[in-house]
Write a structure and sequence with these properties.
This protein is an alpha+beta fold. The protein has one domain. About 30% of the residues lie in helices and about 10% in strands. It contains three helices and two strands. It has a two-stranded antiparallel sheet. The chain is elongated and about 65 Å long. The N and C termini lie close together (about 10 Å).
C-alpha cells in the first residue's frame, strides 16, 4: 500500500535498498512545494491513511422502525483524492 500510494505522498517511487539514500528531483520538488504534479496537496502516508478512514459505511434504520425491521446501508462517497488512492490500490500485484 505504501508503494501504491507513493504518487500521493512525499515518498519517492524509485528506491534502491542498497544505494545511499538520495531523493530524485521529482521527489525533491514534491517535498519542497508540498504539491503533486496535478496541483493538489501531497500528504504523509499516515495522514492519507487517516483521510481514507473517513470513508464510512453505516447501517441505518428509521427512527420509527421496530427491532428486526428492514435496514439499509449508506456508504459515504469518496472525494477525488480518496478515489485516486482507491484506484492506485488496484495496481498492487500480489
Amino acid at each position: 500500500m505504501i508503494e501504491a500510494w507513493a504518487p500521493l505522498t512525499f515518498m519517492a517511487r524509485e528506491r534502491d535498498p542498497v544505494a545511499l539514500a538520495k531523493c530524485s528531483p521529482a521527489a525533491l520538488a514534491k517535498a519542497t512545494s508540498r504539491r503533486l504534479s496535478d496541483g493538489t496537496s501531497a500528504m504523509r502516508f499516515t495522514r492519507l491513511l487517516a483521510h481514507m478512514a473517513t470513508i464510512v459505511r453505516n447501517t441505518v434504520r428509521s427512527t420509527s422502525a421496530r427491532i428486526g425491521e428492514a435496514t439499509f446501508t449508506l456508504t459515504i462517497r469518496p472525494n477525488t483524492k480518496q478515489q485516486h488512492a482507491l484506484d492506485l490500490l488496484t495496481t498492487i500485484a500480489v
